[in-house]
Write a structure and sequence with these properties.
By secondary structure, this protein is α+β, with helices and mostly antiparallel strands. 30% of the residues lie in helices and 35% in strands. It contains four helices and eight strands; from the N terminus they run αββββαββααββ.
Length: 138
């Protein structure tokens, strides 16, 4: 599979997709979870709860890979961001709001209720920020 050009990569990432966040467990083995993400051309950002297993794992070992893949029915393609994550306390609810707008139909009152609960617990949210050391595509 050929690598993507920067323009192809950016167009691919402009489409709504899930990322697979891969971290290391305490025993050194990999574990991955699907996440919403934001890419601004420089950094990838994900939000999570301050008490989540993601935070515990990343405080111990900040190395991650975030893999974004094609949707079903599209030509095969993927982008992987590799590096060390920084955990930030500021901006998490703003990120959650932007991602909710991107990933959900906010006309649905159930989604609005979830977002409201996140707003009420905003102090307990964190941003995982990755300025990639390596970006791989295929």
């Amino acid at each position: 599979m050929a690598r993507m050009s920067v323009a192809q990569r950016e167009a691919f990432l402009a489409t709504v997709r899930l990322g697979l966040l891969t971290m290391l467990r305490e025993d050194g083995g990999p574990t991955a979870v699907p996440v919403w993400f934001e890419w601004d051309g420089t950094a990838v950002r994900v939000f999570t709860g301050a008490e989540s297993l993601k935070i515990k794992r990343l405080e111990r070992d900040p190395r991650i890979s975030l893999l974004v893949v094609n949707n079903v029915g599209e030509p095969e393609g993927w982008v992987a961001f590799d590096g060390r994550v920084t955990i930030k306390t500021e901006g998490a609810i703003e990120l959650a709001e932007r991602l909710a707008e991107r990933y959900w139909d906010m006309a649905d009152p159930n989604y609005e209720a979830v977002l409201d609960s996140w707003r009420q617990g905003a102090a307990n949210l964190r941003v995982l920020e990755l300025v990639p050391e390596v970006i791989r595509t295929g």
